[in-house]
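Lab channel / #folding
Pinned by the channel admin:
"Please post every new chain as: sequence first, then the structure tokens as a reply. Keep commentary short and put observations after the output so the thread stays searchable."

First post following the new format, from NK:
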Amino acid sequence: MLHNLAQLVRYRGLIQSLVARELKARYRGSVLGFFWSFINPLLLLLIYSFVFTVVLPGTHPKEIEPYALFMFCGILPWTWFSSSLSESANVLISGGNLIKKVLFPAEVLPIVTVLANMVHFFLGLPILALFLIYYRAPLNFPELLWFPVVVFVQFLLTTGLAFGLSALTVHFRDIKDILANLLTFWFFATPIIYPMSAAPGVGKQALNFNPFTHLAISYQEILFYPGPFGHWKWLMALAGASLLVFIGGYFLFDRLRDSFAEEV
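Reply from TO:
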């Protein structure tokens, strides 16, 4: 397994080509093309802002005002996370023609899915930056240095889960449908549209077991809250756990790889 994992560096050119192909294919035939990478997060933000400020006003505490900015700090990385898992569950099945080629490294496909969605996450950051400027968010340079660390931890966690999901879905096709409902529950079980402080004592303890809770809070503390980045210990613990998830996901993928060509 470790030998195959070390070989991933050799496939960086292939990964780069497939990511570029995925990005081009996603908006092929659309009028606006890559502009949808900016429009989609903006539309998502406007929808949630309308629901929670017009339809359901007063449902959030004053500590998270401006609410649109608070929510966007969590929704943007969540979109990267959820889209990567949803697409990775089906990536080996849809890429069956590539997997059946003897020399093609199947593990490249989940990585490409995660990286392509990470590019969309980065393309959505200018929209977030405009909101930060508009609302005059109190950003501190030392805290911003933690931002790439949070992104890297999310990449590790997401890729590890993508390896496991893609491998298991080849054998258990129902995982795709279960995952769609699980991600809906996971979203509301993460402090994205509400602050962590709003959860009751027992609920807060339960949320601490949710790995994305600590990613969401990290993004919020870096980009939204004015205070120091106090969640760094949780982030470091999550980094260690994410590394284990990455290794475990790849181990499962490696054990099942010989059956992929037959099952797809």
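NK: The radius of gyration is 19 Å.
TO: also worth noting, The CA atoms of residues 61 and 198 lie 8 Å apart.
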